[in-house]
Design a protein that fits this description.
With 697 residues, the protein is of the alpha+beta class. The protein has 10 helices and 40 strands. The strands form 9 sheets. Strands 33-34-36-35-37-38-39-40 form an 8-stranded mixed sheet, with helices on both faces. Strands 1-2-3-4 form a 4-stranded antiparallel sheet, with no helix packed on it. α4 links the parallel β35 and β36. The two termini are 31 Å apart.
């Protein structure tokens, strides 16, 4: 009887533990903030927040900064909100609804809810004080004029304009050949700089009025872009690169993509370069967030980001030219860069701080525009990103997260330091998620076979079996970095939740930052013979699996792998090349076949075209079907603008001719980013269920 009572007690305790495990629905109820914007003259701010697919604008203003819901889009139709900005006086919020701005053809309408009517990408405005949103026009990429009365935007490659309050009809501002974009109003609002992309080359133009011909700024055989007005509106700075063309170059050699910063007088068009990047692989145009991040700031300085010292760092140069001053020295990267309203400071996020583990975090930094006196102003164990200073110059706003709390908007006095961060949106996090017991990931490092250091975060559940099943998670991009907490990107906030779910079910999860990713310097970010030309980064994935297999708490016979996009590609490679190591996997919208996706051998081939074709074949998962034995779940949405849906069809049809166990999940009408919340939960649950089915005895 005593044994029976003990058995019943143990069963009851087990049931309670299972019952307390968070569901996938609960772990994904986090509000996701994005598009944080501030007005240029007061304390007002606005942002978009996605709450289980219901995307709305929220606003706040000092001194209270009470977060207030501004719109009432309370149905999940998968229509994202982007390009959020406030008028200079803060009286209007302008935004875009629709499209898929994380993919190519961003302004193409998407319809993940499968509505029986055509969807659109549209520019809207709404009074900051509240009221009905006003449809301004079909279009994208809006920019509010300095006076705050008009909005310029792009429609079918041309620049249009309309009144910010929706009065009157929108109209095309001017016509210019090419695909036009990059709109920049002059400080007084009387002129507009833009970029006209014309295939092999592009021009910077200035439009004044319909009676005056467009002024082309120092036109030549080049690709010009990123126009920036001087504070007095008398000059333009821009980035110049070589035009496309010339003899075919090596496909496999390191990329040399030279660029320079030019300035031009608006009145007479006189132009000259003031700084040129080194003609080295490290001196190429940065491919991290914001590219060159060109800004014309105060103190007669121009600031920019460059990779030429092997880290994406901020530099400052006099607007008349001279030597560039390194503002942020050190072994870390800088992104999400914004100047202060007075032009005296730059604020940004960086993976640096007093803690050794800060290389796998983001903290807010600030630095004067004219001297290398950088300060980390949000040290600690959090994740902080997307900083901005309010127009009155009194507050710093940013997004803040931790390992256990998803991102919410946050506030610090500016320029004060060592003060307590105030969270503005913590009340939006549901109680069930606030009370969930989440795993705090640990930073780990190990070596790939060629000696490259691989970085990862380990999610390790407490209790359970002595030897647990394990999963390698592979991020996409590949220019991404997974962090020691909730991610500032929507796709990876979701995968962080999924990794927590897997840990709650007894899996040890290893989230791998493999080469090609950001955060660890140029050589890690731009390795040779990677991707379709050798897949050298796969060494890091295999090393991750082998590292897990060596851990005493891991059952080496039950190691799975999953990833999306580029992570799907590497998942397929892992299953094809190393089924002995990876027992099962989930491949989500991955690339599987690079054969034919490189410059062909033609009448004038690249000197190493034949070798590139060989490498593309050996880098393609479809080349390893003979050794692929592990079960796989293939997932793809058929309106994917990032990875062709046919990539999964191709792999599936090939796998059907083998003995591999295959399961599939196809999502009609959704994109690469699971824009409909129910699809996000469906994909997550299918991933977890498949791994549990295959890896639990």
């Amino acid at each position: 009887m005593r044994q029976l009572t003990l058995l019943l007690l143990l069963c009851s305790l087990s049931y309670l533990l299972i019952a307390q495990q968070p569901t996938m629905q609960q772990l994904t109820t986090y509000p996701f903030p994005s598009e944080l914007a501030t007005a240029t003259t007061d304390s007002r701010l606005a942002l978009a927040i996605n709450e289980q697919g219901r995307r709305n604008l929220y606003v706040a203003e000092g001194p209270a900064f009470e977060l207030r819901k501004l719109t009432a889009y309370d149905e999940d139709l998968g229509d994202e909100i982007t390009s959020v900005q406030l008028s200079a006086d803060g009286n209007w919020v302008v935004y875009v609804k629709g499209g898929d701005h994380g993919g190519s053809n961003a302004n193409t309408p998407r319809n993940p809810a499968s509505l029986p009517v055509a969807t659109k990408v549209q520019v809207w405005s709404v009074p900051f004080a509240g009221g009905q949103p006003k449809l301004l026009a079909d279009g994208d990429d809006p920019v509010v004029s300095p006076q705050g009365d008009r909005v310029a935007f792009i429609r079918q490659g041309q620049v249009w304009t309309c009144a910010i309050d929706g009065s009157g009809e929108a109209g095309q501002l001017f016509y210019a050949r090419g695909v036009n974009g990059g709109i920049q109003w002059s400080p007084d609002g009387t002129a507009l700089a833009f970029v006209s992309a014309r295939g092999s080359h592009s021009l910077v133009g200035i439009f004044r009025n319909k009676q005056t011909p467009i002024q082309w700024v120092a036109p030549t055989f080049a690709r010009d872009g990123s126009p920036r007005w001087s504070p007095d509106g008398k000059r333009i700075a821009f980035v110049r690169q070589d035009a496309w063309g010339g003899a075919p170059d090596s496909i496999l050699s390191p990329v040399i993509n030279p660029w320079a910063i030019w300035t031009a007088n608006v009145d007479d068009g006189d132009a000259a370069p003031i700084w040129s990047a080194p003609r080295t692989p490290q001196g190429a145009v940065p491919t991290t967030n914001g590219g060159t991040n060109l800004h014309w700031v105060g103190k007669d300085r121009i600031t920019f980001l460059s990779y030429h010292d092997k880290w994406p760092h901020l530099y400052s140069i006099r607007d008349t030219g001279g030597d560039a001053m390194l503002l942020t020295p050190g072994a870390f990267m800088v992104e999400h860069i914004r100047p202060s309203p007075d032009g005296q400071w730059l604020v940004a996020s960086a993976n640096t701080g007093p803690d050794r583990d800060d290389i796998d975090r983001r903290h807010i930094i600030r630095v004067p525009v004219d001297k290398p006196d950088m300060e980390v102003i949000t040290p600690g164990k959090g994740i902080e990103a997307f900083p901005s200073i309010t127009g009155d110059g009194r507050h710093l706003v940013f997004l803040s997260a931790t390992a256990s709390r998803p991102s919410v908007p946050a506030l610090l006095p500016w320029p004060g330091t060592n003060t307590t961060v105030r969270l503005l949106g913590e009340h939006l996090i549901p109680d069930i998620l606030q009370n969930a017991e989440l795993v705090t990931p640990k930073r780990v490092e190990f070596k790939a076979p060629d000696g490259m250091t691989v970085y990862a975060q380990l999610f390790e559940p407490v209790g359970g079996a002595a030897e647990k099943p394990a999963v390698v998670f592979i991020h996409g991009g590949p220019q991404r970095q997974m962090l020691l907490g909730w991610h500032y990107g929507d796709y990876y906030a979701n995968t962080y939740a999924l990794n927590q779910y897997l840990a709650s079910r007894g899996f040890i999860v290893l989230s791998v930052n493999y080469r090609l990713g950001i955060g660890y310097g140029f050589d890690f970010h731009k390795p040779l013979f990677a991707g379709r030309y050798g897949a050298s980064e796969y060494q890091d994935i295999k090393a991750a699996g082998e590292w897990l297999a060596d851990q005493p708490q891991v059952d080496a016979t039950r190691i799975g792998v999953y990833g999306g996009s580029y992570g799907g590609y590497l998942t397929a490679l892992a299953l094809g090349k190393d089924s002995d190591l990876f027992s099962a996997g989930v491949d989500i919208h991955g690339v599987h076949n690079y054969i034919g996706r490189i410059p062909p051998v033609s009448a004038e081939p690249a000197p190493d075209a034949e070798r590139a074709i060989e490498l593309a074949r050996s880098s393609s998962p479809v080349s390893y079907l003979d050794t692929w034995r592990s079960p796989v779940l293939l997932i793809h949405g058929d309106d994917d603008a990032n990875v062709d849906f046919e990539q999964t069809i191709d792999l599936l049809n090939r796998l059907k001719k083998t003995n591999v166990l295959i399961e599939t999940l196809m999502i009609p009408d959704d994109t690469h980013h699971w824009m409909l919340y129910e699809h996000q939960v469906m994909v997550n649950q299918a991933t977890a269920d498949f791994l549990q089915k295959q890896l639990y005895p």
